[in-house]
Design a protein that fits this description.
Aspartate Aminotransferase, domain 1; Aspartate Aminotransferase, domain 2; four-stranded mixed beta sheet; 15 helices; 38% helix; 17% strand; globular
């Protein structure tokens, strides 16, 4: 192990070992990242990369944040794991803070966004079971949705390339067009268990749900007794300049799922439920051996407090607007659209974007796609306008090379 941690380990040897010993389910970049500071990452050969990926919208405070390092150092001196057979104080403190800030009732902790959505799927089913409504078997999702890759929520992620090799999946899932109010009226009825929606779709291309659409969805779910789930695994936790992404619509879900930035890189997910759902959950309904441990919840509590600060949220809104405007100023015949909210933006092109992402590596820039033709920008929330200027300059050069 010490050899792998050594600066002298040859990069090509590391890449060769990775190819041999890791399952090949990721198309990883052709370098090995080793360290980071602020907005920058450095590989084993010392090359610097400006990061507009943030570990896929995870690393809210970038890299080597001194406050988080101190928090982790102190937390590591305590109990790392005791399981959920016993209480631990940091878990309770984090739960209380999340509930007070969200207006929900209770929270279940897990280890990832997919797990948070799996819990939401089970909890919605449990409400129907407890109410003796066995006719409620349908789950509604939306075009371009992404709710995870574990088996249950893979069924709610309507993309053939993800689903086809693992069929048959869960049955009775209906896919509606995103932002189509008429489709809501036609589909939501008393046979629906739950509706899952991302207020802002991440993997689907940074598509923003219209406020009237979410408001109508809330009204119809109320009317038919349907559990409404907001998946904010990617768009939540200050990413949009509001602590919770759905705040712009003025409605609340029955279940809210969170993950990515909550642990700032440590594995944690959270499924927040309202009183109706909380009352349906009983001993043994769900569980997780590792979830809610004192180390990760201590860090998540610190993250939540910092993300909630008004000045921090204002920073996200200001820099997010700047990012959107700078993307709109890009000149290329290949630009189809620019959209986003806060520090969650998209550049849609009429060509495949992966070659641009790969060329970005040569210029010291990390970007990530959201589908074949969309570049997604989800930088650390500490990004400054100077970083945005530098990124856009590189991106304009890459676009010019397409002509």
């Amino acid at each position: 192990m010490a050899q792998y941690l050594s600066d002298s380990m040859d990069t090509q040897d590391l890449l060769a070992d990775g190819s041999e010993y890791l399952t090949q389910n990721y198309a990883r970049a052709p370098f090995v990242l080793q360290s980071g500071k602020g907005m920058w990452l450095y590989d084993t050969e010392g090359k610097a990369y400006l990061d507009f990926v943030a570990g896929i919208a995870v690393n809210a405070f970038g890299y080597a944040d001194e406050g988080l390092i101190d928090t982790i150092r102190q937390a590591s001196l305590g109990l790392w794991h005791i399981s959920n057979l016993y209480h631990n104080a940091p878990q309770i403190a984090l739960a209380k803070a999340l509930i007070e800030k969200s207006g929900m009732k209770q929270v279940f902790f897990c280890n990832s966004g997919a797990e948070a959505n799996e819990a939401a799927l089970k909890f919605a089913r449990k409400v129907a079971y407890q109410q003796h409504q066995t006719e409620r078997t349908k789950t509604i999702v939306f075009s371009n949705a992404f709710h995870g890759r574990t088996f249950g929520v893979l069924s709610l992620t309507p993309r053939e390339k993800y689903q086809k090799p693992f069929a048959p999946l869960l049955s009775n899932v209906e896919v509606l067009p995103f932002n189509d109010i008429d489709a809501l009226h036609q589909a939501i009825s008393n046979d629906v268990t739950a509706v899952f929606i991302e207020p802002i779709q991440g993997e689907g291309g940074i598509n923003i749900a219209d406020a009237p659409f979410l408001q109508t969805l809330r009204e119809l779910c109320n009317q038919h007794g349907v559990i409404l789930v907001f998946d904010e695994v990617q768009c939540g936790m200050a990413r949009t300049g509001e602590l919770f992404a759905h705040e712009y619509a003025g409605v609340k879900p029955d279940i809210l799922t969170l993950a990515k930035p909550l642990g700032a890189g440590l594995p944690i997910g959270a499924t927040l439920v309202n009183e109706c759902v909380a009352q349906a959950i009983e001993y043994g309904d769900h569980g997780s051996t590792f979830a809610g441990g004192s180390l990760v919840t201590t860090v998540a509590y610190e993250v939540l407090q910092r993300l909630s600060e008004p000045t921090f949220l204002e920073h996200v809104r200001v820099t997010g607007q700047y990012l959107l405007e700078k993307l709109q100023q890009l000149t290329s015949p290949h630009v189809v659209a620019v959209r986003g909210r806060g520090l969650m933006c998209a550049l849609e092109l009429d060509v495949a974007v992966q070659p641009l992402v790969s060329r970005g590596y040569e210029h010291g820039l990390l970007m990530v796609s959201a589908g074949a033709n969309i570049i997604r920008f989800v930088p650390p929330l500490i990004v400054e306008t100077s970083h945005i200027d530098h990124m856009v300059s590189i991106l304009q050069t890459l676009l010019n090379e397409l002509d």
